[in-house]
Structures are given as structure tokens and as C-alpha cells.
Amino acid sequence: MKRTRRIARIERESMERDMENLQDRLSDLPDCVLHNIMKFMNAKHVVQTCVLSKRWKNLWKSSLNLTFDSSDFLWVPVFNNFVSRVLSCRDNSMSIHSLDFRRKGCIGPKILHEIMTYAASHDVQQFTINVNLVLKQDFMLPSCIYNCPSLKSLKLYFWFPYAFATHIKLPTSFNLPTLETMYIKHVTFSENENGCVEPFSSCNMLNTLVIDHCYLLNATKPIHISNSKLSNLTIRSFRGDGVTYEIALSTPNLSEVTIQGFPDHKLSSMCNVPNLEKVKIEVTWYESFPTNHVVLISMLQVFAKVKILTLSWKTIKTLNDLLSTSSFRTQLPAFVRLRTLKLKMKSFSTMSNMAVREMVEYLLHNSPATNVDVLKCCKCSTLYPLGI
Questions:
Q1: Which whole number is the average pLDDT over 116-127?
Q2: Which residue in 314, 326, 308, 310 sits closest to 362, CA to CA?
Q3: Which pLDDT band, with edges at 50, 70 and 90, does 256 fall under?
Q4: Residue 306 in contact with residue 323, Cβ under 8 Å?
Q5: Which of 96, 115, 162, 248 sits 20 to 30 Å CA-CA off 344?
Q6: What is the pLDDT of residue 1?
Q7: Are residues 132 and 105 in contact, defined by beta-carbon separation less than 8 angstroms?
Q8: How far apart are CA 100 and CA 229, in angstroms?
Q9: How, if at all, do strands 379-380 and 371-376 pair?
Q10: Greatest CA separation found in the chain?
Q11: Of 301, 292, 358, which Cα lies nearest the Cα of 334?
């Protein structure tokens, strides 16, 4: 009995020594390593590290990465108060590498303005907003955020902002010289003093742009996407309030494009696109919408020099209808550089294999030897030459 107790005591003391050594090793790590650990934690958990030891008591105040997520809180006022307290207690001499603010449920613009102002004044590099913003009047983003010289990544996701017929307005031009990536959702573009809509031309380092469910205040004006560095562009359901309008591309280094959703826009290009590699047209057309053919032709004409082209089932069906009309048939471009055509087919479709093959053959009649890649039910068939 005594022997058993003695062994248990020795094991307990050994475990306590191991825990003390582990704590000492953790405390001996430099601040940069501990801050890197905090990078993978939400702000709530980062602040809670202050109870671990004296070493951690004020360490959270100099954290370079902040992630605010309302799902960690039961009550909205508690979450809003937590955000304000963290920002006010943080070491103001420290810059911010990334700030991510996610809010489930509705918020007003006041706290959003506070976060954006704080981020911009602390040289933020990566800034993400994902909120359901309820407005009683139009809201203009604080000028500090679109004039932030340190910003490299900007992601603005706004949900249901039109409940009160209001708009989240973007500036007529972004002055972000180091910005490389931009994602924007449910925001409104407007024209500048010269009557042009050209918001991205001053973003000299912009490489990736995603425009998702955005709105054009004056749908009679074309929006110009002008940027010499842009290589990756995604447009999802760019809406013009039911009016077909134009997007003019001036992007000579464009290499990859994705068009998704319900397109209400025609495309045009103001420059050559010699580096265009991949294009995906994965859209859902309005039934009996009169401009479907015009919109699709404008896309194909702009992307005529692509090397890899992916078409969704709805696009294939619309293209097949288009080819039945001689006036539209003559407007199709020649895909002189196309190497692979990918078709996303439904398992059960109303189009026969013969109709699909005739459509593909006509589409590629001026193309080089092209592989056709047929995808069904998320599974891809083997590549095979078209043989024409």
C-alpha cells in the first residue's frame, strides 16, 4: 500500500515538473512567436490569454492580427462593447497586419466607421468586413480606408443592403498604391466628375479583382475596369437594375476570367489581351430574356484569344439556340488559340449528343486541334481530340 502511494506521489511530482518546464518554455518564446500563435485565434480568445501568466498579461495589446466574430457572443451589445474596448485598450504604437470583422445579424454604420478608421490609422495591410449592414440612408465608406497606403488586401462583403432602397457607395476612385487583392460585394459604383465610372485605374499593383452582386448607380454609363497589372478577374451577377449595360475592359495583362450568376451586362475590350489563358462562363440566363444572345456574343468576342474555355450547361443551351439563327451565327468569333474546351453537362438534359457535337464543331471550326473535356455530375471524362 505504501509502495503504491509512493509511486503515485513520484508520478505526480514528475508530471508537475514537466508542466512547469512546459510553462517556462512557452514563456521563454519571443513575442513574435507568441503573436504568430495568436494569429490563428479570434480576438475574444486572444484577450483571454491575459490570465495565463504575467508574461501574457499585456501581450494581447500588441497583437498584429485581430479577428472579431460575433458568433462568439450571445448578445449584440456585448459584442459591440467588446470591439470598442479592444480597440481602445490596444497598444496604439503597434500597426495592424490584418483585421477581420464578421457580424451575423444587423448592425448600423457607426461601429463599421469606427473599425475602418482605426484600421486605416494603424497601417492595416489586410482588411476584411463581412456584415449585414442596415441603412436608413446612403452610406459612403470612410475616405481613410480607400486612401490607405499600406493596404494590400481589401474584402468588403455587405449583405442585404437594399432593404431600405439605400446604397453602400464606393468612391469614384481608389487611391491604394499597394493594393494587390480586392473583393467587393453589394456595393454601388458611381461616376466621377468627368462622367466616367473608372474606380480601379489608380490601383497600380492590383492583381486580383472580384466584383460580386454590385450595382451601378447610372446604368446608362459603362463601367471601365482599367488596370495594367490586373491578371485575375471574377464578375458575379453584376446587376444594373434590369438594364443591360456595358463593362469595358482595359486590362492588357489579364490571364484568367470567371463570369458567374445572372449577367446583365455586355462586355467590350479596349485593348489586346495576349496573355489570356483561362475563361469560365458559368451563368444562369433569364428565361426568354431578349438580350441573352447579345450578352453571350459580347463575351465570346472579348475572349476570342483564350486557351482554355469552360462553359456551363445554361451557356451551352443558349449557345445552341444562338446558332440556330444565321444573324447571330455570323457574329461568333474564331477561337484561333483555343487548346481545351470544357463543357459542364447535366446528367439529364434536353439536348441530344448530336446537337451538342454540332454546336461544338461550329464553335471550333476555325480553331486549332482542340481537346473537348466533358464534365458530368462533377466527374470529368477523359480528354479527347474533337477530330475535325
A1: 95
A2: 326
A3: very high
A4: no
A5: 248
A6: 57
A7: yes
A8: 26
A9: antiparallel
A10: 100
A11: 301
Is there a domain that residue 38 lies in? no
Q: With a threshold of 0.90, does the pTM exceed it?
A: no
Do 130 and 157 meet the contact criterion of CB atoms below 8 Å apart?
Answer: yes
Identify whether 90 is part of a domain.
Answer: no
Which has more pLDDT, 365 or 348? 365
Cα 318 from Cα 235, distance rounded (Å): 19
Q: Please give the residue range of the domain that contains residue 337.
A: 309-388
| 348 in a structural domain | yes
Domain membership of residue 319 (yes or no) is yes
What confidence category does residue 379 fall into, taking pLDDT thresholds of 50, 70 and 90? very low
- Are the CB atoms for 175 and 202 separated by under 8 Å? yes
Under 8 Å CB-to-CB from 82, ≥6 apart: which residues? 43, 44, 68, 73
Q: Which residue has the cell 490570465?
A: 51
- Number of domain units in the chain: 1
Q: Which of 89, 68, 77 is nearest to 131 (CA)?
A: 68
Q: Give the pLDDT confidence score for residue 349 in this predicted structure.
A: 64
Cα distances from 41 to residues 37, 45, 63, 129, 377, in angstroms, run 8, 6, 11, 17, 38
CA distance 322 to 194: 38
